[in-house]
């Protein structure tokens, strides 16, 4: 409570540090290491629609701790080397995974915050995320019923003993909040918008502990009526959303199944081991989905920390009964620092290359020592960019942020699990703040179209820079570079067919470079 009060005080004394222009960030300093960009019903900075220049020219976008926000730079690709000590060479013959997309979650809390704005400000916020003038998210995660970022505990089938799901019904949070906003996002987007759904808990009467929260799993065994009812719950969810003309690209097998195995876990969870998840998909969810009108909806297993890989994937995907129903493996970012990506993500990819890896949840401000909203934190933007680059360089095909929007206290959240978000809504002032994390995500979501293929990039010697390169379907090379060091770094990019791009990346900044190959 003390943190929330302090945060609201800081919000009220934010200092405007830059003047507005037609496309400039309305920068406000809240005492962190960088600034937020303030938006209201009539003004919001926007990257706009991007046209890649003609062959022989490059286009760049820079965001930095110093305050740049998708700042444009451009120039000619030069025929000769500048002699820079550091060279990044794009190697298009080295081809890896293709990109699916980037996005965030339409939680109850996110929807409540977006809807708390006036119609004009609400439209600005949705445009920033989904329109061609914004950062063009093409993925939305949709929680099935409540999660911690709800204001109450509920499922869609809370009538005990309703094994046929006769009383299944969506909640007002769906019909009055999430669905209208998703429909509007879909209307704003020029790209296909992919929805995927995750459930936090089965109804309490289907569970061993008789509660939505804490340690508990499904009663009975795979193939039994509780397990089959839970599988049909997924089908009913797809049916009900279908009534609103919303279809789902994918379902996950449930949010963080390991959490439901923890004693005294504080919010909604449903426990599975790799073995019980394997059997439920093989005997219940897979057959139910396959025989339904939604057979094309894909299944992602795990939806949990990558530290559980590759073992979880081995248990599930090595079983021929279940492997034919599964399309991908969902991972969360929360313990990434404790386990290298090459022994989790890359190993899993090499073992099971036909199944995609997809990052399904991430947020800042979740740890006890750095909790909640930090308005203007560049450190958190760097954490995002570092994790995305590391994931992409280890065969991940997309990256999903957590809440699309939260309030200045990091909620609402019924269990007070307050965290941060790329967009913070201050409904009292009818404004929202685009955090540095928003721009960090933009460096990927705006420029990496669906179908973009990762290609090789090599460095002439060891460097502090982190990078990932892609070839888009339209023949554009996209090179994303992160500098987390305290020094500006001069370097050149070598396209072996076209020539050299000389540039300098400032300390603590993210740079995206684009150029045509033909």
TrEMBL record:
The keyword Signal applies. GO terms for cellular component: lysosomal membrane. It is an enzyme of class 3 (hydrolase). Residues 451-513 form the Glycosyl hydrolase family 30 beta sandwich domain. GO terms for molecular function: beta-glucosidase activity; galactosylceramidase activity; glucosylceramidase activity; glucosyltransferase activity; signaling receptor binding. Residues 99-448 form the Glycosyl hydrolase family 30 TIM-barrel domain. It is a peripheral membrane protein. Its EC number is 3.2.1.45. Pfam families: Glyco_hydro_30, Glyco_hydro_30C. Pathway: Lipid metabolism; Steroid metabolism; cholesterol metabolism; Sphingolipid metabolism. This is Glucosylceramidase. GO terms for biological process: autophagy; cholesterol metabolic process; glucosylceramide catabolic process; lysosome organization; negative regulation of macromolecule metabolic process; protein catabolic process; regulation of macroautophagy; regulation of membrane potential. PANTHER family: GLUCOSYLCERAMIDASE (PTHR11069), LYSOSOMAL ACID GLUCOSYLCERAMIDASE (PTHR11069:SF23). Keywords: Glycosidase, Hydrolase, Lipid metabolism, Signal, Sphingolipid metabolism. It is found in: Lysosome membrane. It catalyses: beta-D-glucosyl-N-dodecanoylsphing-4-enine + cholesterol = N-dodecanoylsphing-4-enine + cholesteryl 3-beta-D-glucoside; beta-D-xylosyl-(1<->1')-N-(9Z-octadecenoyl)-sphing-4-enine + cholesterol = cholesteryl 3-beta-D-xyloside + N-(9Z-octadecenoyl)-sphing-4-enine; a beta-D-glucosyl-(1<->1')-N-acylsphing-4-enine + H2O = an N-acylsphing-4-enine + D-glucose; a beta-D-galactosyl-(1<->1')-N-acylsphing-4-enine + H2O = an N-acylsphing-4-enine + D-galactose. It comes from Chanos chanos (Milkfish). Residues 1-18 form the signal peptide. Its main location: membrane. Belongs to the glycosyl hydrolase 30 family.
């Amino acid at each position: 409570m003390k943190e929330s009060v302090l945060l609201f005080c800081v919000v009220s004394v934010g200092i405007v540090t830059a003047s507005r222009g037609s496309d400039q960030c309305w920068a406000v300093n809240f005492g962190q290491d960088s600034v937020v960009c303030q938006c209201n019903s009539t003004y919001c900075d926007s990257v706009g629609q991007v046209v890649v220049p003609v062959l022989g020219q490059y286009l760049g976008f820079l965001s930095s701790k110093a305050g740049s926000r998708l700042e444009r730079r451009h120039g000619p690709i030069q025929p000769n080397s500048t002699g820079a000590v550091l060279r990044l060479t794009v190697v298009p013959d080295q081809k890896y995974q293709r990109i699916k997309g980037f996005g965030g979650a339409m939680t109850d809390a996110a929807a409540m915050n977006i809807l708390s704005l006036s119609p004009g400000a609400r439209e600005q916020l949705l445009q920033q995320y989904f329109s061609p003038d914004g950062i063009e998210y093409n993925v939305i995660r949709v929680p099935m019923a409540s999660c911690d970022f709800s204001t109450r505990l509920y499922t869609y089938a809370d009538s005990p003993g309703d094994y046929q799901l006769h009383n299944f019904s969506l909640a007002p949070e769906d019909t009055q909040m999430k669905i209208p906003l998703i429909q509007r996002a879909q209307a704003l987007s020029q790209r296909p918008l992919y929805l995927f759904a995750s459930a936090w808990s089965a109804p309490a009467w289907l569970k061993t502990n008789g509660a939505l929260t804490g340690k508990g799993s499904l009663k009975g065994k795979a193939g039994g009526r509780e397990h089959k009812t839970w599988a049909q719950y997924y089908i009913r969810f797809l049916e009900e959303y279908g009534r609103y003309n919303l279809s789902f690209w994918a379902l996950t097998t449930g949010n963080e199944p390991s959490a439901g195995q923890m004693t005294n876990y504080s919010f909604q969870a449903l426990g599975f081991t790799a073995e019980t998840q394997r059997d439920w998909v093989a005997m219940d969810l897979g057959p139910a989905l396959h025989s339904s009108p939604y057979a094309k909806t894909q299944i992602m297993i795990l939806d949990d920390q990558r530290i559980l890989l590759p073992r979880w994937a081995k248990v599930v995907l090595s079983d021929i009964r279940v492997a034919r129903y599964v399309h991908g493996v969902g991972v969360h970012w929360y313990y990434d620092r404790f386990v290298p990506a090459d022994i989790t993500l890359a190993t899993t990819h090499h073992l099971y290359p036909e199944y995609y890896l997809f990052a399904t949840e991430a947020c800042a401000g979740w740890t006890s020592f750095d909790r909640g909203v930090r308005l203007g934190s560049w450190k958190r933007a760097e954490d995002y960019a570092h994790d995305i680059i590391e994931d992409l360089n280890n065969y991940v095909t997309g990256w999903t942020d957590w809440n699309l929007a939260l309030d200045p206290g990091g909620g609402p959240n019924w269990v007070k699990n307050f965290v941060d978000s790329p967009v913070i809504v201050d409904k009292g002032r009818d404004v929202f703040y685009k955090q540095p994390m928003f721009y960090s995500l933009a460096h990927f979501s705006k420029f990496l179209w669906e179908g973009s293929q990762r290609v090789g990039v090599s460095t002439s010697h060891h460097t502090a820079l982190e990078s990932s390169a892609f070839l888009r379907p339209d023949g554009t090379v996209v090179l994303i570079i992160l500098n987390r060091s305290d020094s500006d770094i001069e370097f050149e990019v070598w396209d072996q067919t076209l020539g050299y791009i000389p540039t300098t990346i400032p300390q603590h900044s993210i740079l995206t470079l684009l150029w045509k190959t033909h």
